[in-house]
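Colleagues,

Please find the record for the two-part complex below.
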Amino acid sequence: MDRLLAEIREQPAVLQRLLEEEYSNIQQVAQAIREREVHYALIAARGTSDHAATYAKYLLGARNRLPVALAAPSLYTLYESPPRIRGGLVMGISQSGMSPDIVSVVRDAREQGALTVAITNNPDSRLARVAEHLILCRAGEEKSVAATKTYTAELMAVALLSVALAEDEKALAQLHTVPEAVQSALTLEEQVKGVAELYREMQYCAVVSRGYNYATALEVGLKVKELTYVSATSYSSADFMHGPIATVEEGSPVLLIAPRGKALDDLLHLAEELRARRANLLLISDARDLGRAPTLLQVSPRVEEWLSPMVLVVPGQLFAYHLARAKGLDPQHPRGLRKVTETR
Amino acid sequence: MDRLLAEIREQPAVLQRLLEEEYSNIQQVAQAIREREVHYALIAARGTSDHAATYAKYLLGARNRLPVALAAPSLYTLYESPPRIRGGLVMGISQSGMSPDIVSVVRDAREQGALTVAITNNPDSRLARVAEHLILCRAGEEKSVAATKTYTAELMAVALLSVALAEDEKALAQLHTVPEAVQSALTLEEQVKGVAELYREMQYCAVVSRGYNYATALEVGLKVKELTYVSATSYSSADFMHGPIATVEEGSPVLLIAPRGKALDDLLHLAEELRARRANLLLISDARDLGRAPTLLQVSPRVEEWLSPMVLVVPGQLFAYHLARAKGLDPQHPRGLRKVTETR
């Protein structure tokens, strides 16, 4: 078995470890945040970690009522005119903790006197050193170029922070159901492999979801690009309706991630619309009774919508992996990518 | 001549009118903002207007040092748990002013006591009524489904607000050079038409820029999707390096928007990388001396980088228009789109 597949399968154990070993530290970070008058959060991240930041935008927004801005690192590195931080909490999220532009955002914020938090898998990284507070992902070394276990670990770190900020015991109990739900999603692998075969000739596709799982659409789209070189484009369903739906014609591949919960009606409405246009629809969902089913990866309904991004991304990771295999590509060595991308 | 082309060509006049008729109002809005203790801005927008919001994120960040968050409207409409606004300026940008989710964000913010501003082309819209302050685009009715003149008008409105906030007379003078620069960009039309012919068989492409012109990459990508049904995906060059570049192989079409200024080095570095991969590179640039030139749409170097999004988008609009024509499509009636998309 190759490393990437091993890392995908390691996710339940990684999430369990994070729950057990990091929560008390995260409670202290949350305490420090509560003691400051924080009006909004600014989060800096790139690539996969930027999708964890997108999850944070929805989660901290909906459950902690904290507005979240995603930083534009080029304001720091290219234009050398960073925004003034007043009343802001500044977080950097980076698996490696080595991306210079992400480090710049956090360093500048700390110099301005803002409260800073790093979420990283690397305790010895520049990002870890430059931030006042540190949340560790505890995912173990990730050797594959394509990030998988560090992504779900970053989501879990964000979810733990949200729960700690709200001091919500009931939500904490819900969080503890996630590793088992991820384990259950992994059992779909054989089915995913068969579905991937069907999409072997795919050259481009749209990946669509909404709300908390907009992050999932972004991340599944990126895995598909990195591993299979298919030009995947990710959308929130609302943005998709504002123009890009025009690209859909008979046979156009669309991956729709449709979680149970508040976003479901909208996404099923879109599914109807896509069926009418005879799109080639692949549905990843933990909802039941989906009507006339297109190609469906049915995930067991075990977690609340706000936690489902950690679960629904898993069939997407497996899909990207097996699609690469079906295309005769080596998912271990995506062409032209390195593990650490040093953008400024 | 059809309406869409007429509206594209109308842009210099629209921008000139906005400069002449709206600045004194915008100065009053800026005065109201300066009187409040504003720590950050939250902007709600969809589709094309969301790209104007992205421009605002860079412009207000770099030139006014104001952190900008782009709202997640589903927090209001789906999850019914809007973020708490303290110290925030909330802006809604919408051509029609009719999108219920954008109206929700602004209405909620005003109810919370935040300072609210609407940027819209429709003074009678719900958005115009619900916001405390109103900035009008004065673009005249836009009849085409694909937004063009209202997009550049929204950019100009944002730029005027930035200048008024900074009380920067020199910058105001620079703004007055934009209509002529846009007029000059329009003279490329015959050349664009020839280039579009070369891309007639294109099914997907990447559209890349960085910094202020990340907005241009997003908007050109959307025009290409709406008018030609090509699956275009837009990136900042930094994000592109973090994974999606793996999709580029020999012949892959990439549109690179490379403005003079701080982002240029990075973008030319990417151009080299893309040449090495034998991508099919189309460059839109107002820089000179671009080395071994691929297919190049050379825009006259007339404006500063922060204003170039209003200019460099024009060859992109024309490219999308003429690519649609080359493909035998009707740019006047994109399939499955309406002028006003009512997402909740």
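The CA atoms of residues 27 and 164 of chain A lie 5 Å apart.

Comments are welcome before we finalize the supplementary table.
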